[in-house]
Amino acid sequence: MLIPDRLRSMIDDGFVRRIIRPLKSGKEAEVFVVETEDGICAAKVYKEAHRRNFRQRQDYVEGRRSGDTRRDRAIDSGSRFGQAQREAAWQTAESDTMRRLNAAGIRIPRLRQLGDGVLLMDLVTGADGDPAPQLATQHYQRDEAKHWHYQLVHEVSRMLCAGVVHGDLSEYNILHATNGPVIIDFPQATDAARNSNAKRLLLRDVNNLTRFFSRFAPELRRSEYGQEMWLLHEQTALKPDTRLTGRYTAARGAVDAQIVLREIEAAKRDAAKRAEIRAARGLPPLPVRRP
Ligand SMILES: Nc1ncnc2c1ncn2[C@@H]1O[C@H](COP(=O)(O)OP(=O)(O)O)[C@@H](O)[C@H]1O
Ligand SMILES: [Mg+2]
Questions:
Q1: Over the stretch 100-109, which tens digit does the pLDDT of each residue have?
Q2: Overall CATH class of domain 5-234
Q3: Nearest ligand to the C-alpha of residue 44?
Q4: CA of 233 to the centre of ligand 1 (A)
Q5: Which atom of ligand 1 is nearest to the CA of 24?
Q6: Domain segments of the chain: what residues?
Q7: Burial of 32 per CB tally in 10 Å (0-12, 13-18, 19+)
């Protein structure tokens, strides 16, 4: 077994007692089952920046600000210092999100510790006590599929209430644990309030859930939970216990009316501004046009 240096140094530091076995090697990270003094956990070891591929795209990182202007400017500039800062920011993004979601009681593994390029978290287990399989490997009866689909949609909605959009949610990033599905893999998660792509990413996440579960319950295809959820979120009406219906058309009328009212207000403001400018220039007011 090839042990990454980053994990080896956690053993040297005493955080990890021993490596039980490698679990998965993915696009961005390698995951190991390890033993710590607090018991068994999963260790996610990030690959070095140059070996990763797609997820640092602008879509995801937009709106991520450390609050330290020098650091943010360096990240934007792409200098060597900037690249190192960006790498550090990428690594802490997942643990920051997990902390936030742990605090909100979302069904994700509990974060134990973040070392240099290694994240320690609870190992999600299945019925036999082994690491839980990905949802992608499971088959469901129609009613089960509808049940778990709703539970996951509700979890996504509760995440949105905590200000987080996963951004890469699919049957590969959800594990089928003994007591229901558990969501994992957050380095690309975005802040719903600060990222202009948040709506698009949220709709894609929900669509992925619906696409997967509609294999077992085709009627789910007609649901529009993503749109419904985002609308309520925009109206600050989404609460962690909101019961979603999956219907959106009725609500669309309400939002259209709001847009029309906003447009009317904006037109009134423009007209007032124009009248002010004309008056300041000593010009007579424009005649009111009748339709
Ligand atoms: N806490 C965990 N418990 C059990 N298995 C896990 C855990 N975290 C990750 N895994 C396994 O490792 C795989 C890769 O982890 P993930 O966080 O999705 O990283 P990647 O970025 O490589 O996709 C998961 O699909 C899952 O099978
Ligand atoms: Mg993954």
A1: 999 999 999 9
A2: mainly alpha
A3: 1
A4: 29
A5: 12
A6: 5-234
A7: buried
